[in-house]
Amino acid sequence: MTGEVIRASKTTAVRYERDRPGELVRMDVKKIGRSPDGGGRRAHGRVNREATRDRSVKVGFDSVHSLVDDHSRLAYSEILPDEKEQTCAAFLTRAIT
């Protein structure tokens, strides 16, 4: 409690924006849990699992691939089944064309 400035050495962040659309893009992949159509346990409660089990429904994870243009802040996203190299490359091709 001396009144001394603690963060005097902290400088403000350097902000930038690219001049043209597509010059700099940011890409991210987020893994999310897959829910069956119509919702899961939270929507319908706990019911007899053997009676309602549908083996054709694949429960697991999907990946949300997103790309944001730095100049225009335009965002493009797709939900895809995985985050493998070929999937990401195909997503990037679709996003920038």
Q: How far from one another are the termini?
A: 58 Å
Mean pLDDT across every amino acid position:
82
pLDDT < 50 stretches: none
Widest sheet, order of strands? 1-2-3
DSSP summary, beta strand count: 3
In this structure, how is the largest beta sheet organized? 3 strands, antiparallel
Order of helices and strands: EHHEEH
Tally of discrete structural domains: 1
Determine the strand fraction and express it as a percent band.
Answer: 15-25%
Count of helical stretches: 3
Overall, the morphology is flat
Helix content: 10-25%
Radius of gyration: 22 Å
Structural class by secondary-structure content: alpha+beta
Protein name: Integrase core domain-containing protein
Region (Disordered): 31-51
Organism: Amycolatopsis saalfeldensis
Task: Describe this entry's structure for a reader.
This is Integrase core domain-containing protein. It comes from Amycolatopsis saalfeldensis. Residues 31-51 are annotated as: Disordered. The protein has one domain (25-96). The protein has helices spanning 41-44, 49-52, 85-96; strands at residues 25-33, 61-69, 75-80. The protein is of the alpha+beta class and 97 residues long. The longest helix is centred in the last third of the chain and has 12 residues, at 85-96. It is built from three helices and three strands. A three-stranded antiparallel β-sheet has the order 1-2-3, with helices on one face.
